[in-house]
Amino acid sequence: MFHRRHAIYCFLILIWLATNAWSAEPNLVGVWKFVKEVDRHADGSILEGAPPDGYKGQIIYTSNGYMSVQIFPVGRKWLLGTATREDLKNTLYLSSSYFGRYEVDTAASEVTHKVISNLDPSGETENYKRHYKLSGDELILTGNWEEGGEQFSFEVTWQRVK
């Protein structure tokens, strides 16, 4: 009898693990439109250098654990056939575009983007951990990054697309 009960407990634990190993925050699932981004230096001062016309973008979270994000500067005037090296460099520097899987830790209010491919090759196969805050149809993602030995933080606001 003991072995049967032990086997049943193990089976129930395995079922629980299988169904809870990946858990999406139900309210995170959907398409979100870029609203604004605020980048800061480590001392809290605002980082200048955003494009004058701002950005357009979207992030998508699917119910089965996939995600995709694209953010591009508004006001690009170049065409592919006539773009200069500087046009392309500026666009790449100011843009974010990657896709992959995601996992949510609801207790910590964190979402981890597990990158499969990225416009920036140095970011491929990275895990980007973001803190999230949901308020109705508004999603705020925050995180940190380092560039040239300097630490920065960001706060990106998204609006649910209905």
The number of strands is 8
- Order of strands, widest sheet: 1-2-3-4-5-6-7-8
Kindly report the CATH topology.
Lipocalin
Instruction: Determine the mean pLDDT.
Output: 87
Which class in CATH terms? Mainly Beta
- Based on secondary structure, the structural category is alpha+beta
Order of helices and strands: HEEEHEEEEE
Strand content: over 45%
Q: State the end-to-end distance.
A: 55 Å
Describe this structure in words.
This protein has helices at residues 2-20, 85-94; strands spanning 30-41, 55-61, 66-73, 96-105, 110-118, 127-135, 138-147, 150-160. By secondary structure, it is of the alpha+beta class. The chain has a single domain (23-160), classed as Lipocalin (Beta Barrel). Strand 6 and strand 7 form a beta hairpin. Residues 9-22 have low confidence and may be disordered.
Can you describe this structure in just a few lines?
By secondary structure, the chain is an alpha+beta fold. 18% of the residues lie in helices and 47% in strands. The protein has an eight-stranded antiparallel β-barrel with strand order 1-2-3-4-5-6-7-8.
Secondary structure blueprint with pairings:
Elements: H1 2-20, E1 30-41, E2 55-61, E3 66-73, H2 85-94, E4 96-105, E5 110-118, E6 127-135, E7 138-147, E8 150-160
